[in-house]
Write a structure and sequence with these properties.
Two copies of one chain form a homodimer. With 158 residues, chain A is mostly helical. Chain A has one domain: Multidrug-efflux Transporter Regulator, Chain: A, Domain 2 (Orthogonal Bundle). The first copy, chain A, has a two-stranded antiparallel sheet with strand order 1-2. In chain A, a hairpin with a 5-residue loop joins strand 1 and strand 2. In chain A, helix 1 runs antiparallel to helix 2, helix 2 runs antiparallel to helix 5 and helix 3 crosses helix 4. Chain A is flat and about 65 Å long. Chain A starts with a helix and ends in a 7-residue tail after the last helix. The N terminus of chain A is likely disordered. At the A-B interface, helix 1, helix 2, helix 5 and helix 7 of A face helix 1, helix 2, helix 5 and helix 7 of B. Chain A binds a DNA duplex (30 and 30 nucleotides) through helix 4. Chains A, B: Pfam families: MerR_1. Chains A, B: GO terms for molecular function: DNA binding; DNA-binding transcription factor activity. Chains A, B: This is MerR family transcriptional regulator.
Chain lengths: 158, 158
DNA sequence: CTAGAAGTTCGAGCGCGCTCGAAGGCAAGC
DNA sequence: GCTTGCCTTCGAGCGCGCTCGAACTTCTAG
């Protein structure tokens, strides 16, 4: 995904939710930093901070086969730009509700090479359906929620 | 929420996702049936079928204080229209990511009467933020997903 | 050289929201 | 009246995705 697209996402965010603009900016920042390809490898804690996960979780993801950072001679993990980009991808997909199971399956396919693109596309098509479905569920709930808010005197606290 | 609003939701759903229109219609149907106020009380299994949960889950919700159906002389649960409407509300909010904890807190407030509307509004305002935030996360993931689909030859399977 | 921070592996534990099964009671059709 | 099936309560179990702690090693600042 391009940084431009991310910026558009940012701008598309409704203005009344100030707090999360900061957060979105943070995400944007992540991507920029990753794109900057300043190829000093990061430690597990640094990588975790950049993508907004814990070091524990990064090790867990590795154990699950989602990412495979290089190692220093002494065995410490070295996260490079490509690893960080993958982590951002993983985080986005996890946040959208893709299960660990599907994600590991997908990553395995990616690592098996080009002949797996058919199945990869199938996975992503299914994932798109799930996302759209979740969005419709959220719309429904948003409506209920706003109805209740109105009922209780509106956002203003009147 | 009005049935009209639900119909609008339905129509607003993108046309390419045929399968879930059926599902949305099902939800709509639920509401109509509940609104029909055909006041024959339903058994736990009937109620479960109507709202799309299991009988086990309905009993669990009751145990958590989310709903309190009347009982027959012999102790069987009797779900009336009002109970079913509450169940639909609960289901929507659960699907939108509201936790059991927040939902029980909210329901407790409702049952405590009018003097709790301030806190109820606060809960719903927070919930709205969470929903909007989730929607933005989903948009981000949707974009990644569609990018991958395009990369793999598009929806058509080309 | 040394203290302390941060890294490693491993396996156990946890919070959430159900989900299930056992043991027994009630209801409706034949 | 009996059979069949749904109802009741209760407590245990489960799947997911982390999350944590122990025990040990390595790096870094002073």
């Amino acid at each position: 995904m391009s940084t431009d697209a991310l910026i558009e996402q940012l701008l598309a965010a409704p203005p009344e939710v100030g707090r999360s603009v900061v957060e979105a900016l943070h995400q944007l920042l992540d991507d920029s930093m990753l794109d900057a390809d300043d190829d000093a490898p990061r430690s597990v804690a640094e990588a975790a901070a950049l993508v907004g996960l814990t070091a524990h979780t990064l090790r867990y993801y590795e154990q699950q086969g989602l990412v495979r950072p290089a190692r220093s001679p002494s065995g410490h993990r070295l996260y490079r730009a490509a690893d960080l980009r993958r982590l951002v991808f993983l985080t986005r997909m996890r946040l959208s509700g893709m299960t660990m199971h599907d994600l590991t399956r997908y990553v395995r396919l990616v690592e098996q090479g080009e002949h797996t693109v058919d199945e990869r596309r199938r996975i992503m098509l299914e994932q798109r359906e799930r996302i759209l479905r979740r969005m419709r569920e959220l719309s429904l709930a948003l409506e209920v929620t706003e109805y209740k808010i109105e009922l209780y005197g509106g956002s203003s606290g009147a």
